[in-house]
């Protein structure tokens, strides 16, 4: 259990540091979920639930940003998004070390969540007021 605490603490700190306020209820729900998690399956379920919220936010931000762009800039955004997806998958797959045991599974899922949160924040920041 001690081996799970450090990555979980690092993950929580990274997520909170990178996230723009997206709803105190959602953040509290995620924090409560992680605090009550006992097993790897519980932790991954918490991360997955939060990922689904952040993935929706990312997609909403992408569509909203896209609606503000000219056709040529839309094409650039699509190219950038595809490159980001390839990066996220390659980077987070690296965390899923087959010899890393349950911690690798948590780290890989946390990576996907953190990258998705960061990209949602980035797209939000690119939107014009």
Q: What features would you describe in this structure?
A:
- The protein is an all-alpha fold.
- The protein has one domain: Substrate Binding Domain Of Dnak, Chain:A, Domain 2 (Up-down Bundle), CATH 1.20.1270.180.
- The N terminus is likely disordered.
- This is Lysozyme inhibitor LprI-like N-terminal domain-containing protein.
Beta-strand percent range = under 5%
Secondary-structure class? mainly alpha
Radius of gyration, in Å, reads 16 Å
The unreliable regions are: 1-6, 8-21
Q: How many alpha or pi helices? A: 5
Number of domains in the coordinates?
A: 1
> Averaging pLDDT over every residue, what do you get?
84
Describe what is shown at a glance:
By secondary structure, the protein is mainly alpha-helical. It has helices spanning 2-18, 24-36, 40-67, 71-95, 101-126. 22% of the residues are buried.
Characteristics:
Substrate Binding Domain Of Dnak, Chain:A, Domain 2; flat; 129 residues; single chain; mainly alpha
What's the helix and strand layout?
Blueprint: H1 2-18, H2 24-36, H3 40-67, H4 71-95, H5 101-126
Helix pairs in contact: 1-5, 2-3, 3-5, 4-5
């Amino acid at each position: 259990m001690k081996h799970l605490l450090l990555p979980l603490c690092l993950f929580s700190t990274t997520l909170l540091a990178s996230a723009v306020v997206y709803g105190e209820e959602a953040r509290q729900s995620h924090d409560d979920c992680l605090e009550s998690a006992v097993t790897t399956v519980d932790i991954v379920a918490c991360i997955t639930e939060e990922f689904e919220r952040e993935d929706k936010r990312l997609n909403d931000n992408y569509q909203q940003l896209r609606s503000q762009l000219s056709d040529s800039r839309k094409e650039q955004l699509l190219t950038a998004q595809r490159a980001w997806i390839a990066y996220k998958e390659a980077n987070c797959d690296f965390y899923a070390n087959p010899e890393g045991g349950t911690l690798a599974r948590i780290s890989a899922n946390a990576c996907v969540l953190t990258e998705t949160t960061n990209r949602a924040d980035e797209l939000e920041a690119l939107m014009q007021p």
